Amino acid sequence: MGKYIIAGNWKMNKLPSETYDFVKEVVEATKGAECEVVCCTPYVCLAPAVEAAKGTHVKIGAENLHFEDSGAYTGEVSADMLVDLGVDYVIIGHSERRAYNNETDETVNKKIKKALAKCLVPIVCVGESLEEREAGITMDLITIQIKKAFAEIPAEDAAKVVVAYEPIWAIGTGKTATDDQAEEVCGAIRKVLAALYNESVAADVTIQYGGSMNAKNCAGLLAKENIDGGLIGGASLKAPDFATIVAAAK
Ligand code: 13P
User: Fold this and answer.
1) Which of 39, 96, 155, 227 has the fewest CB atoms lying closer than 10 Å?
2) Does domain 5-240 have CATH number 3.20.20.70?
3) How far apart are CA 79 and CA 38, in angstroms?
4) 49-82 confidence digits (pLDDT tens)
5) What is this structure's pTM?
6) Which residues of 179-217 are buried (b: 16+ CB within 10 A; e: fewer)?
7) Cβ atoms of 65 and 111 closer than 8 Å
8) Which residues does ligand 1 sit against, CB inside 6 Å?
């Protein structure tokens, strides 16, 4: 299926002053990785992160971007700014941004297009809440999120997008989706992509699982056919744990 990618999402953790040493630790701990290794950091940590990762196998990502090129958007950061720093990846539409920062399927779509136009790899997050799962509408909701995220994105660009399936009820709760639950939704996402584009594009898209993935539960999840990696929150803040997850992805 898609290329294996293990990406850490630091969220609002770690200081700029501790970033360089920590990324160096990740580089050391993940030497010989058979998958792509990414650290997505807060904006203010990106410069030291890029510096530490320079010339290594580790790539650096941001946790958000603005969809406009420049202008009067106080407090925002553009794709060009990220590219100028040497950033390669960007997380788009994380459920925390959808919940607290008015991120919508429409802004997610605009941000994906901007990231692709600037050659940043977008990691696009989708996922259902516990209420939505219990109401039996998980697949409907994910289908809508995927269709809206990929709206007007041509087939030649679609496989450059990474999709992260992150059930909201599993994020930061210690409550992981079972291997089968995660595989079921990731497989459904691939079917939606096959219907939107074709089987070959769908097969090339990297689909990650995220939500309390850790050193203990990663092997079962990553062994599933339609799970091509992970988006890791808490466990990405400790280099040995993150490295164990990276080692399981091959
Ligand atoms: P946790 O791994 O801390 O549950 O976070 C998952 C996540 O939201 C990654 O984007």
Assistant:
1) 155
2) yes
3) 17
4) 999 999 999 999 999 999 999 999 999 999 999 9
5) 0.98
6) bebbbbbbebbbebbeebbeeebbebbbbbbbbbbbbeb
7) yes
8) 9, 94, 166, 171-172, 210-213, 231-235
